[in-house]
């Protein structure tokens, strides 16, 4: 051990002149050979707590770390700060036989102070034999939450660390993690056999982070608008599926945002190249699954957006914690819809029952967080066993826009009584079912419909009672049992409240509106004048004028839904016009000039603020199908064959062809019509549309006779009419 003091060693090895937070106390504990448990949020300087003692103590410290990429980063960082490269090494599956031999030689010669090992490598027989030969100063277990099934990143091989340490030989154990609830902390200490450890726990409060939960309505538009308002800032967008990662990244790129995707399905080279581009600021935004971010040390990430709600609050804390590490601005925005929760629950089916049970409890906590209307910080910190004393943090959506409060003294009393009546042996959802009088399967099997509180709280719904339990927990009246996660217990404070109830103001929950899936779907709104009525009628007049000039019915120029959409979106360039419903490049170029000129004049004259989400371009997911259809029609393939090869009905195909033609692409389907209709019939329908007031198929059938023509005949001729004359 060297003779420098801790402060001098810090300066000598790392060039820092002072410790952060509890670093010094924790380092002393490690230096004194004590088992140590360190719980510090990301960016709190955890790694120094084992790196400095390792450099100062005799022997080699064994650092067990879950990610190969992380090990490499850490080893590079230590080597960068020291004179000799062999001061730190890693031992994992990425090394060749020769490289492994070199590492072992350096360690046996006493040159290596830190040896990073993956838990999988630790279990290999020859590695165990090798480690028995060396003097181990201590074992450091990084990302220790991986030990606990209740942690957000459980790894079964982590649970085998203790028996292997026993086999290699005793040395002190240091466990480090950036997120752990009381439950997880207990689990880690118990599993590693260090219940006697000295615990160092830093505050989980990140004051600079702003937390907001938004309803998941048109999330892509909201995201693009947000990024455009924060031009040039670095951000991460988390999605649950690889497919969604690729879709969102593509949508951002199409909208002129420098973005890249990152997920486990990409090959390692692409992944690390994308990560480097983000770190080197060649791109502003990374769209990723949670595979991205462990050990990402970028201090100036300015926003973290969750497109999908995370599976646990620990995951959420870890991921949002990647914003604003330099203490500057960090906006954390999460999109929430209860449908996503149901989707996550569905994913859990088929997993072992114990795992499902855990997953469900963790999800419930996430739902509580999302729907709750009290300060987000209070809930997050309470989850990690920390009390936040301020009533209003001034840096979350709920504190900046406070929600209505109601007196709930009687309801809290009722909740306490119901919990005590079943001997504190049940979880929140079960108690809620008793109170609202819901005969769920569990209620039936325990005969709790005979309970005297069954149905006593049916004036309120389950969400209300969950808010009562949650806010009572924050107030310290109830808590969740640590050993049996989720069972509601009444605290001493709760018993006092029951004996002497006082006012209890309950904050009303959010009601998140669901996005209506049918909205904005295939069918165009009929006649739709849901935008600016004055502009709508001006556009109709202009359409008449243009139609007369071309000697065409007005609906061939643009259909009503397109005009309605223009009166909502106010497009002022032909480029923007192409994002209007039913307007493609062909139509925009052919007829668009006069329309956008009119809209621009109108916007300027009336000083209208155009919606910023207008310019959201979508990546046409149907584009492959459209291209296929256009190519097939060019090759004169029959509609039946096209429909069969794509597994769609003929009517669906006609819908697609209509959409293509309505947007201004010219298609020649004569070869197919000639098979279905003779020349006279074709002419009759064509002439009808030339004179018609509207393009309604039903009006055409009424006029021309349903016994003479089918809906399909009329629609095919209407396509020909639009294509020949309009495009």
In short:
By secondary structure, this protein is α/β, with parallel strands linked by helices. Helix content is 49%, strand content 11%. The chain folds into five domains: 6-201, 3-Layer(aba) Sandwich (Rossmann fold); 209-399, P-loop containing nucleotide triphosphate hydrolases (Rossmann fold, 3-Layer(aba) Sandwich); 409-503, Arc Repressor Mutant, subunit A (Orthogonal Bundle), CATH 1.10.10.10; 533-615, HRDC domain (DNA polymerase, domain 1, Orthogonal Bundle); 623-726, ATP-dependent DNA helicase RecQ (Arc Repressor Mutant, subunit A).
Features of the shown structure:
alpha/beta, 5 domains, seven-stranded parallel sheet, 34 helices, about 10% strand
Question: What is the element layout, followed by pairings?
Answer:
Blueprint: H1 6-14, H2 23-31, E1 36-39, H3 47-56, E2 60-64, H4 68-81, E3 88-91, H5 97-108, E4 114-117, H6 119-122, H7 125-132, E5 136-141, H8 161-168, E6 173-177, H9 182-192, E7 198-201, E8 209-215, H10 219-229, E9 234-238, H11 242-254, E10 259-262, H12 268-279, E11 285-288, E12 301-306, H13 313-320, E13 330-336, H14 338-348, H15 353-371, H16 376-383, H17 397-400, E14 405-407, H18 409-421, H19 428-436, H20 441-445, H21 462-474, E15 478-480, E16 488-490, H22 492-499, E17 505-507, H23 533-550, H24 554-557, H25 560-569, H26 574-577, H27 585-605, H28 623-634, H29 639-646, H30 650-662, H31 670-676, H32 679-691, H33 697-704, H34 711-726
Parallel strand pairs: 1-6, 1-7, 2-4, 2-5, 3-4, 5-6, 8-13, 9-11, 9-12, 10-11, 12-13
Antiparallel strand pairs: 14-17, 15-16
């Amino acid at each position: 051990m060297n003779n420098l003091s801790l402060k001098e060693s810090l300066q000598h090895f790392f060039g820092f002149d002072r410790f952060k937070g509890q670093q010094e106390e924790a380092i002393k504990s490690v230096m004194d050979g004590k088992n140590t448990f360190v719980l510090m949020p990301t960016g709190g300087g955890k790694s120094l707590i084992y790196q400095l003692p390792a450099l100062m103590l005799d022997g080699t410290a064994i650092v067990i770390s879950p990610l190969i990429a992380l090990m490499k980063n850490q080893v590079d960082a230590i080597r960068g700060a020291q004179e000799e490269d062999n001061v730190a090494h890693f031992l994992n599956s990425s090394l060749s036989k020769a490289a492994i031999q070199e590492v072992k030689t350096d360690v046996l010669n006493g040159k290596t102070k830190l040896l990073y090992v993956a838990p999988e490598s630790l279990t290999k027989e020859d590695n165990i034999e090798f480690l028995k030969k060396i003097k181990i100063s201590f074992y450091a277990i990084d990302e220790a939450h991986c030990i606990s099934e209740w942690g957000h990143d459980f790894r079964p091989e982590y649970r085998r660390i203790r028996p292997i340490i026993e086999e290699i030989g005793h040395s002190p154990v240091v466990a480090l993690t950036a997120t752990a609830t009381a439950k997880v902390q207990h689990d880690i200490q118990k599993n590693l056999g260090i219940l006697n450890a000295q615990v160092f726990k830093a505050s989980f409060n990140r004051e600079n982070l702003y937390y907001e939960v938004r309803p998941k309505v048109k999330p892509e538009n909201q995201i693009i608008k947000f990024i455009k308002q924060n031009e040039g800032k670095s951000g991460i967008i988390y999605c649950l599926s690889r497919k969604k990662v690729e879709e969102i990244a593509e949508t951002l790129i199409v909208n002129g945002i420098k973005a890249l995707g990152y997920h486990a399905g990409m090959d390692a080279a692409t992944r690390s190249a994308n990560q480097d581009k983000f770190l080197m600021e060649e791109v502003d935004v990374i769209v990723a699954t949670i595979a991205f971010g462990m050990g990402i040390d970028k201090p100036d990430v300015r926003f973290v957006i969750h497109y999908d709600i995370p599976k646990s609050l620990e995951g959420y804390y870890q991921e949002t914690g990647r914003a604003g590490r330099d203490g500057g601005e960090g906006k954390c925005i999460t999109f929430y819809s209860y449908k996503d929760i149901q989707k996550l629950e569905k994913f859990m089916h088929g997993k072992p029952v114990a795992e499902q049970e855990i997953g469900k409890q963790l999800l419930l906590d996430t739902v509580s967080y999302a729907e709750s209307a009290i300060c987000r910080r209070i809930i997050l910190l309470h989850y990690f066993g920390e009390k936040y004393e301020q009533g209003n943090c001034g840096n979350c959506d709920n504190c900046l826009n406070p929600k209505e409060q109601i007196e709930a003294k009687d309801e809290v009393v009722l909740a306490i009584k119901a919990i005590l009546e079943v001997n504190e042996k049940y979880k929140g959802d079960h108690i809620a079912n008793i109170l609202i009088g819901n005969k769920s399967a569990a209620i039936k099997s325990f005969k709790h419909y005979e309970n005297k509180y069954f149905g006593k709280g049916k004036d309120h719904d389950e969400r209300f009672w969950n808010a009562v339990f949650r806010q009572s927990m924050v107030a310290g009246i109830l808590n969740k049992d640590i050993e049996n996660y989720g069972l509601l217990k009444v605290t001493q404070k709760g018993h006092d409240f029951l004996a002497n109830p006082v006012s209890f103001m309950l904050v009303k929950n959010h009601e998140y509106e669901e996005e209506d899936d049918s909205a904005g779907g295939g069918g165009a709104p009929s006649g739709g004048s849901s935008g600016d009525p004055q502009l709508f009628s001006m556009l109709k007049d202009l359409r008449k004028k243009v139609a007369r000039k071309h000697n065409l019915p007005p609906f061939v120029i643009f259909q009503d839904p397109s005009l309605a959409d223009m009166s909502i979106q106010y497009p002022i360039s032909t480029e923007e016009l192409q994002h209007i419903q039913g307007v493609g490049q062909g139509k925009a170029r052919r007829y668009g000039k006069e329309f956008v000129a009119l809209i621009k004049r109108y916007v300027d004259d009336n000083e209208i603020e155009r919606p910023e989400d207008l310019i959201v371009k979508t990546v046409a997911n149907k584009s492959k199908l459209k291209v296929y259809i256009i190519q097939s029609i060019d090759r004169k393939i029959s509609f039946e064959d096209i429909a069969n090869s794509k597994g769609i009905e003929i009517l669906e195909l006609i819908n697609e062809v209509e959409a293509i033609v309505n947007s201004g692409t010219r298609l020649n389907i004569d070869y197919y019509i000639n098979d279905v209709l003779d020349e006279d019939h074709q002419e009759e329908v064509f002439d009808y549309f030339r004179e018609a007031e509207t393009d309604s198929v039903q009006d055409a059938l009424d006029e021309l006779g349903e016994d003479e023509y089918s809906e399909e005949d009329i629609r095919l001729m209407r396509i020909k009419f639009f294509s020949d004359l309009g495009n």
